[in-house]
Write a structure and sequence with these properties.
- A hairpin with a 2-residue loop joins strand 4 (107-118) and strand 5.
- This protein has a single domain (2-146), classed as Thiol Ester Dehydrase, Chain A.
- The chain is mainly β and 150 residues long.
- The protein contains one helix and six strands, in the order E-E-H-E-E-E-E.
């Protein structure tokens, strides 16, 4: 299951996926632990670090949309849509609601359920929960896999 992580197009400072615990054509569950030395905590907010909403959104997108999208592309779920070395995921839209703060060293779990995947576009319902099972954020994410311009 975690073999899918080798396809993610992110480097260490911007990779927000630690583990994938469930992955199917219908959804994904994965987690990430926020490291206290992450680049964004230094200035957000000095002396009282809080994970920025954009990072929470990115974690949700990487696990809930990108991992699932890559799985669907690699497994050939949709004929004529393939993933190769020049492919990369693009987030096309989000609608996210935030309910709780996420602090350094917190582990969050993302659950995504596919709404549809057609013509290379994926739309998912995505939730993030903290280690206590409390809802941190939820939203609808859409994206496509694009081929690099050569």
């Amino acid at each position: 299951m975690n073999d899918i992580l080798k396809y993610l197009p992110y480097k260490s400072s911007f990779l927000f996926v630690d583990n994938i615990s469930a992955l199917s054509d219908d959804g994904v569950i994965g987690d990430y632990t926020l490291r206290s030395d992450a680049f964004f905590y230094e200035d957000h907010f000095p002396g009282n670090p809080v994970t920025p909403g954009v990072i929470i959104t990115e974690i949700m997108a990487q696990i809930g949309l990108v991992v699932l999208g890559i799985h669907l592309m690699v497994s050939g779920v949709q004929e004529g849509v393939v993933m190769d070395e020049g492919s990369f995921p693009l987030l096309t839209s989000t609608n996210v609601e935030f309910f709780k703060m996420v602090l350094p060293e917190e582990k969050v779990t993302v659950t995504s359920k596919k709404q549809y995947f057609r013509f290379g576009k994926l739309k998912c319902l995505v939730e993030m929960r903290n280690a206590d099972g409390q809802l941190v954020a939820k939203g609808v994410f859409s994206g496509i896999i694009k081929n690099a311009i050569k």
